Amino acid sequence: MVDPDGLRALAALCGDVADALTDAQTAPTAGPAGQGTAAAVAAGHDAVNTAAAALAARATSTGYKLRTADGVYRTTDAESGHNLAAIDRSIEV
User: Fold this and answer.
1) In this predicted model, what pLDDT tens digit does every residue of 54-85 receive, in sequence order?
2) 91 vs 82, which has greater pLDDT?
3) Which GO terms describe its biological process (predicted)?
4) DSSP letter string over 52-65?
5) Given a cut of 60, is residue 93 above it in pLDDT?
6) Around Cβ 85, how many Cβ atoms within 10 Å?
7) Which domain holds residue 74?
8) Tally of domains within the chain
């Protein structure tokens, strides 16, 4: 059984996660570019930011798919309800 409220709640959570990941991206640290530790830290920041951006994109995509699934479910459910009501009316006649 599909839980449309659950789909919407999970879609909203995915949006919140994507926002948090985007907001959590770090700024490069200050330091002489030629210093080995500064370069290593900058590379680490870049790697974390790249991973966070990829995860944020995935969470956004998943949220979109969940909202789409919710819409499809609601449409299918409404159409099925109308079809069943039409069958009931045709039997009564």
Assistant:
1) 999 999 999 999 999 999 999 999 999 898 88
2) 82
3) protein secretion
4) HHHHHHHHHHHHHH
5) no
6) 10
7) 4-24+33-92
8) 1
Instruction: For residue 3, give Cα distances in angstroms to 7, 17, 48, 65, 72.
Output: 6, 21, 35, 15, 12
Is 29 in contact with 42 (CB distance < 8 Å)?
A: yes
Task: Give per-residue pLDDT as tens, 33-44.
Answer: 678 888 888 888
Give the span between the Cα atoms of 83 and 6, in whole angstroms.
25
Angle between helices 4-23 and 36-92 (to 10 degrees): 160
What pTM did the predictor assign? 0.75
Task: Output the pLDDT for position 43.
Answer: 87
Which token pair is 66?
């969940």
